[in-house]
Amino acid sequence: MFDLSKMDKLSGLMRKNKIDAVVTGPSNTLEFMTGFNPVGCERFQALFITCDRRYFYICNLIYAEDMRRWFPEDAPFYVWNDGQGFHESLKKAVTDFGLTHKRIALGETIRAVDLIDMESLFSCEFVNGVSLLEELRIIKTEQDLDKMRTAARLADGVMEDLTRFIRPGMTEKEIKLKIEDLFMAKGADGLSFSPIVACGANNSRPHYREDAGVIAPKDVLLLDFGCRYQGFCSDISRTFFIGGISTEEERIYTLAGEAQAAAVKKAREGVRCCDVDRAARDCIEKNGMGDYFLNRTGHGIGFDVHEAPYISGNNERCLERGMAFSIEPGICIPGQVGMRVEDIVVINHQGETEVLNQFTRDIIIIKE
Amino acid sequence: MFDLSKMDKLSGLMRKNKIDAVVTGPSNTLEFMTGFNPVGCERFQALFITCDRRYFYICNLIYAEDMRRWFPEDAPFYVWNDGQGFHESLKKAVTDFGLTHKRIALGETIRAVDLIDMESLFSCEFVNGVSLLEELRIIKTEQDLDKMRTAARLADGVMEDLTRFIRPGMTEKEIKLKIEDLFMAKGADGLSFSPIVACGANNSRPHYREDAGVIAPKDVLLLDFGCRYQGFCSDISRTFFIGGISTEEERIYTLAGEAQAAAVKKAREGVRCCDVDRAARDCIEKNGMGDYFLNRTGHGIGFDVHEAPYISGNNERCLERGMAFSIEPGICIPGQVGMRVEDIVVINHQGETEVLNQFTRDIIIIKE
Fold it and tell me: Is B83 close to A42, i.e. CB distance below 8 A?
């Protein structure tokens, strides 16, 4: 059933940001707010919530029975059919709710082409609502953090199992499927994203997803994966060395680990996200490898695997109790090698910096 | 490598529609035009193509190595990093390419929140580019149709195998996993969408995806699935009856089948899509069940499982040689039962209406 428990906080955020309504399509954001996250298609559907706590849902007739199950019987529904398109229904809804000429914030899954259609239908000021909606969940409760601790423990366990599973000759694809099997066997609800398994030179591409490689002796193997557990995500990266490690590899890996440790050390309550990013960046730059540190130091995590707070150079937000984020500086030398160590870190409700992942950050050598 | 072979047709369409540039994010549309379809995240990335056949690609630094592999060495790239955000790079690109104040058509995967940011950065007229981009592939070549024939044959084979596999007591989830296994074993490249397996009253919801049901004796079981083969999709639906069929079930199923046959019969070269929809609708309405026919009669299919031409009441486009689409009128009685028969139909290059799916439309009774 539609959960109104987050409505107070949302109303407050909307008033503070002078927003009259928010619009969210199927997404983790919608699930966080309401408990449901329908599987959609190209047909427009969304929940509109006004700052004075009214709402309506609009969807195609083929989803009407699915969606009504989530709402009270008298909930305002606007249902359109394929022969009409959604324009007239949406126009009527926006008029009925007095939203013309109002300031409306859109969630991350609303399509630009639907916004263009909306702009031609009625006059509103549309704004980017991503930050506002992420603000709703940027501070995790103690119960949320417990779910994240469990999700992290599952990820640690999968990493541990992989040290015994992985052998040269295996394909990236095999390892990827094994990761999913291991998570399911351990009680995860699903993956938080499609695992990244990258050997050879594939790992210089941080989000490599081709799964085309075969593990060779002396390879460097990058693993990056996570699960979802009771709504909350985990995310861990480690770099394994197949049959030994060269001096140069050890130098790069040690530096990535030092940068990671420096950022974790910097990540305290009250410290700005950009300063945490800077701590990792300084460490890598002063060793002459700044050009190979491509990504932000980390991203917030919770109901989504990427959400606020972003640990990047342009984010001046200060860390607060209840925030959860990854720390994952990486070194990627194009066409050669990429390495990173990633843990999820939280500022817990005692104000301590707590690293959720316990799996070792020491050099792991996989037997040939 | 970036494939310019579709550029002539795209330029022509852009000129005809007075469009100065099209913008496509990662999508099947991008893959159709260029051969690549990157896995993205929330970081903005897109290909801009101008009507005078220039282009540039913009992406985050973490995707730069992946993306450069697809382009000639001197291709114009605009790369932004997490510490900056994409705004300045995009503004520079749009200025360099003389696109300010121009008319720009957006593809289906560009996010509304990114469009809002773009509108604050530079002045352009943004339009919905979905129809224009679908037009690029609405007419399939003979080679395309051959791939679709193979994809349909694989789907027919899976349906055939399922008649022997399905038994009462199985879960919807088990059958769903079996469908994927069967497709892979037969040589499909992947699924065209997450299969719909809906028993009991679940099938009155046309896009039911909860996979929570268990097949019971006397159930009606709706199956809707397809695969991708060399880029092209299949899509088939059938309704099975577990351990027998009641008189009322037979009446509904027969009517769904008659409506499907009437629409297939109507679907000839030169006939309007809305008239094909009307043929199915007339059949169901005259039997007093019009309120339970929720969906459009069909959708175009090809590189995407849903694309133009849509076989719906508001589409006056005429069928032409090379068009491919589903015919799938359904009868859905909320909370009770849903049934449909779906085949992919093409107007082939001899001008004939060819039904790609060969699996029987007769009543299938699964042994208890």
Answer: no
